[in-house]
Specification:
The chain is an alpha+beta fold. The protein has helices at about 5-10, 35-45, 50, 55-60, 70-80; strands at about 25, 30, 90-100, 110-120, 125-135, 140-150, 160, 165-169.
């Protein structure tokens, strides 16, 4: 669904030129509900009893049901998608992803995003590598790794030459 003209005026999207290595953001928080875990199981077909069966999970090393690891990955992608709000053209890769701690019903998580690397990519975009962490209410990193995305230039087709500062078309 396209944004309405009013929404486009209110939303300020960053472009490739607007971010620098080391810039960082923290997203709003979100609490994990049992209905989230059951919904994710229904969406993916992953009804492993570790996620959906309280009796089974009670006997596991976790002592209770845990959220799916890929649910956490989806959460960090969603939470970070507007923090920063950036003109993303394509998702390129996920690298070095680690599942460090379980997520339980009632946990409240947020995403921390830091620009790790950026490099030009053609005349209309650049590649940005983001370090993403999903952090729980106790400050523990639940998941972490790198996302690489293709990000639009503010003026597609126009890139300044580093040597001269002159614009090329």
């Amino acid at each position: 669904m396209a944004a309405s003209p009013a929404t486009r005026v209110l939303m300020k999207y960053l472009h490739f030129e607007d971010v620098e290595v080391g810039d960082h953001w923290t997203s709003p928080s979100r609490t994990i509900l049992e209905s989230d875990i059951l919904g994710f199981a229904g969406l993916t077909g992953d009804f492993d009893p570790l996620h959906v069966d309280h009796v089974y999970a009670r006997e596991s090393p976790f002592g209770r049901p845990i959220a799916h690891g890929l649910f956490g990955l989806s959460l960090v992608a969603g939470l970070a998608s507007q923090c920063p709000a950036i003109r993303t053209l394509a998702f390129v890769s996920i690298t070095e992803w680690q599942f460090r701690n379980p997520m339980y019903v009632g946990d409240t998580v947020h995403a921390v995003t830091r620009v790790e690397e950026k490099r030009p990519h053609g005349r209309k975009s650049g590649m940005v590598t983001w370090r993403r962490e999903l952090v729980n209410q106790e400050g523990a990193i639940v998941q972490m790794g790198n996302f690489t995305t293709l990000v639009a230039l503010a003026r597609a087709g126009e890139r300044k030459s580093k040597a001269t500062g002159a614009k090329s078309a």
